[in-house]
Specification:
The complex is a heterodimer. By secondary structure, chain A is an alpha+beta fold. Chain A has three helices and seven strands, in the order ααββαβββββ. Classes of the chains: A alpha+beta, B alpha+beta. At the A-B interface, strand 2, helix 3 and strand 7 of A face strand 14, helix 9, helix 14 and helix 15 of B.
Chain lengths: 158, 441
């Protein structure tokens, strides 16, 4: 139960950091070799060498953060905000070293200018146990509507 | 009637400016679909998208929902996605395999892969003595008037008459030559993934942006700068940053002055080429290994010719933007006067080592995915352009940069030395547009 609680708190914190636009703190949740991955196709088994909507290590995540923070990131000039809800948190596997594999469901509402969009689907986190917390080794995001045509694009992590 | 609502189109296009209605008037959009997209050669897809008999992909040509299908005889057919019985759409999926034949989901009429009627339930009892049956061509699925392919890239024209594909492509066929020649086996294979992104703007705004060499330094500065920062940090730490960072940082590193050093070549039918080089031939081990394979396949002289081709973008009017050196393309499908779908594909060079594919993939993911670090700002500008053009704040879109300084030698209009940012490609596209639109129906 303790692990379940800790893991849930971790996922909620991650969602909160996104909605609060605390990008550096968000990136810091990833392990040094951590990867954020949104597959182009739900059938894909690995992020390497495959077309992907996102497939970013911390360096690429930093590019994305700095771009969004740049005063001339034109697409991000209009008012925009997101709201994430994370739920259905299930621990699939706990390793002897304390690492956990977790699946959960999310729903993201995004406001951009006067438009509202919805993205929803599942997260799969491989979390590495650290001294008193977790770090993300791999986060896989399968959006239910990933295969639909995008009306405009995505600019930050889902 | 439509023509009456659209006044003299000749007055809409001047050599260095265009009336705003051209972008925002729904009546003009309808005419464009009739006179351009539904008449000239439109890209349907790559042959390797439909490898097995019965494989099909749906594709929009102008306003027409079409199917590209591989027949049992291995031939490719392009058909209207419509049952001739009651007009039901034949294939409701975007792609799939139709099996031995098409079967309508409404009354089970069946058709061969070339569209010919195969069977109608109750053919004898229900239709004997009527006009309906195999002898009546109106009972078959309608075919695109013409289908041709070049080096595996399939195009269709919905008009019986007009230039053949090769004549139409002219010099722009280098898009496919450059891409395929870079493969040791001389062919490319599609990676079965299509990113689809909708732009809330007129289709021409996208095309005009593709060879606008001034915009990257303005529009993509944020990503270019961010990538430059991280790239130099990685370089400091490890001595070498992956080429993918260079692909992004080039947007800031290549200044407006440097862009002026590139050149555009502008051809009949509105096709244009932007030369330029992102430094895709570094002396790293991956490139050297690839060059070895290329040299074995082609010999040194030919290899140098192939790898020396210096192209950033080829625009094949009215609906295809190709980045041959990076093996990717964007097909443009107008959905309405203010909505445009782009279908974004990339390819593998047959026989090339994996790291060369990874290079293309990096660009595809970073620049062309639905989480693009680059196109997002373009889409924002396209939308803003369209909004502005819909207003009464002015009548004209101007294309005056380096106007009057183009070098016109008849078959090609070149931009002058150090005038790479010239708006010649836009002038060329609109000149072609006016010609298309005024051609007799």
């Amino acid at each position: 139960m303790k692990t379940q609680h800790q893991v849930e708190q971790f996922l909620y914190r991650q969602a909160e950091l996104l909605d609060a636009k605390q990008w550096q703190e968000y990136i810091d949740l990833f392990a040094a070799d951590g990867v954020y991955w949104v597959p182009a196709d739900p059938a894909h088994k690995t992020w390497e060498g495959m077309p992907a909507i996102f497939a970013e290590d911390k360096n690429l995540m930093t590019v994305r953060m700095q771009r969004v923070l740049h005063p001339d990131a034109w697409s991000q000039r209009p008012m925009w905000a997101t709201n994430h809800v994370v739920s259905n948190v299930v621990i699939e596997k706990t390793g002897a070293n304390g690492d956990v594999h977790v699946r959960s469901r999310f729903h993201m509402l995004e406001l951009r200018r006067d438009d509202v969009r919805h993205f929803a689907g599942s997260y799969r986190h491989h979390l590495k146990k650290t001294k008193d917390d977790y770090r993300i080794k791999l986060q896989r995001v399968d959006m239910t509507n990933a295969q639909a045509a995008y009306d405009y694009v995505l600019q930050v992590w889902v | 009637m439509l023509q009456e609502r659209v006044p003299d189109l000749a007055k809409f296009v001047e050599p260095d400016r265009v009336r705003r209605e051209v972008y925002v008037d729904p009546a003009i959009f309808e005419l464009e679909m009739q006179r351009i997209h539904e008449r000239y050669w439109i890209y349907c897809g790559h042959e390797t998208q439909v490898p097995r008999p019965g494989d099909y992909y749906t594709v929009q040509i102008g306003r027409q929902p079409m199917l590209m299908v591989r027949g049992k005889d291995r031939k490719l057919h392009v058909l209207y996605n419509r049952c001739p019985h009651r007009g039901n759409m034949m294939c409701g999926d975007r792609h799939g395999n139709t099996g031995e034949f098409f079967r309508c989901s409404y009354h089970a009429w069946t058709f061969r892969h070339d569209g010919a009627l195969r069977s109608i339930p109750m053919m004898e009892s229900g239709y004997a003595g009527t006009r309906f049956g195999k002898d009546n061509p109106d009972c078959s699925m309608k075919r695109a008037a013409r289908v041709e392919s070049y080096r595996g890239f399939v195009f269709a024209s919905l008009a019986t008459n007009g230039p053949g594909l090769l004549e139409f492509l002219g010099e722009s066929r280098i898009a496919f030559d450059d891409m395929c020649d870079r493969a040791p086996e001389g062919e490319v294979e599609i990676v079965p993934n299509c990113f689809r992104v909708i732009q809330r703007s007129n289709w021409k705004i996208f095309l005009e942006n593709q060879l606008d060499a001034l915009h990257p330094s303005v529009v993509h500065q944020s990503t270019g700068r961010a990538a430059m920062d991280v790239e130099s940090r990685i370089k400091k730490q490890t001595g070498q940053a992956p080429l993918s960072y260079h692909m992004l940082s080039a947007f800031a590193a290549v200044t407006i002055e440097k862009w002026d050093g590139f050149q555009t070549l502008n051809y009949p039918y509105g096709h244009c080429i932007l030369t330029g080089y992102m430094g895709l031939r570094p002396k790293d081990p991956d490139t050297l290994a690839y060059e070895k394979v290329m040299q074995k396949a082609y010999g040194k002289k030919r290899m140098e010719e192939i790898l020396g081709v210096n192209i950033h973008h080829v625009l094949i009017y009215p609906g295809l933007s190709v980045q041959s050196a990076l093996q990717q393309l964007r097909a443009v499908r107008p959905l309405g006067v203010d909505r445009t779908l782009t279908e974004i594909w990339h390819f593998r060079l047959k026989g090339a080592p994996e790291p060369i594919y990874r290079r293309s993939l990096a660009y595809y993911n970073l620049v062309n995915s639905p989480a693009t670090l680059i196109n997002a700002d373009d889409l924002e500008n396209f939308w803003k352009c369209h909004q502005g053009l819909a207003s009464d704040g002015g009548d004209w879109v101007t294309f005056g940069r380096h106007f009057g300084r183009d070098l016109d030698n008849g078959s090609v209009v070149e931009t002058g030395p150090n005038m790479g940012t010239s708006e010649a490609p836009m002038r060329n596209q609109m000149k072609a547009w006016a010609k298309y639109m005024q051609a007799a129906a």
